[in-house]
Amino acid sequence: MLRRLLPLILILPIAACSAWDGRMNSLGSPRASTPGASGQDSSAEGLYAQGMEALTAERYQRAVELFDMVEREHPYSTFATNAKLMSAYGEYMRNRYTEALGALDRFIQLHPAHRDIAYAYYLRALSYYEQINDIQRDQRTTEQAMAALQDVSNRFPNTPYARDARLKMDLARDHLAGREMTIGRFYQTRRLHTAAIGRFRRVVDEFQTTNHVPEALHRLTELYLTMGLVDEARRTAAVLGHNYPGSPWYQDSYALLVDGAEGTEPNRPGFFSRVVGSIF
């Protein structure tokens, strides 16, 4: 919703500070007053208004072309600066995230004090966020998204952009934890116990607010028992029981450590079945 509100957010301040004849179109932009040879207004105001109309009609490629024309043909107009940002917005809406990021990085570098700089940082973060891959693939983009979202939260803490960034950070953090769990399970099924422990420990230590922690603690309990580290397994299970007493993962861990204790319901699949089910 925030990203789609950008045209409405930006256009009124632009119209207020530019030279125009007082007539407004349906978007709140100055109407064309000096048509060019093609019948279209080729002034900065006219091109910008046409770009906004194209955005509203979801003709994003045409919108980007028009905003680029504003920059190219009227580089010193009051519309040129915002045209840079609107062009990036159009590229984002076309799912051309690399182009959007390039335009946004240039905008941020050239106009650090712009009134819409918070949105520029936010749109930059979204351009990374939209490229997050599923947990089976490399997560470098997820890490970049996390850093960009954190930047928005730190720089503009009291804005709607920061609130949305914090929410997306939680989702991205959960995504990274899911990736670690997938790798940890893979190592565990291959009996690479030390490597698996490293992955599950990272989930417990670095992603404490995610819903993957109970399973990570249970996996650690399983691994410690497999390696004969009974005391370490008990300590880990105790942490699991203290923090997640009602979790089915705690019931499984308790059943591993206490003779005669039952795990979760009989139809709950075992470890191997769960791994196979997650793959197929």
TrEMBL record:
It is found in: Cell outer membrane. InterPro entries: BamD (IPR017689), BamD-like (IPR039565), TPR-like_helical_dom_sf (IPR011990). Keywords: Cell outer membrane, Membrane, Signal. Signal peptide: none annotated. The keyword Methyltransferase does not apply. It comes from the Bacteria. Pfam families: YfiO. Gene3D superfamilies: Tetratricopeptide repeat domain. The keyword Membrane applies. Its main location: membrane. Residues 41-236 form the Outer membrane lipoprotein BamD-like domain. Part of the outer membrane protein assembly complex, which is involved in assembly and insertion of beta-barrel proteins into the outer membrane. Part of the Bam complex. Belongs to the BamD family. This is Outer membrane protein assembly factor BamD. It comes from Falsiroseomonas frigidaquae.
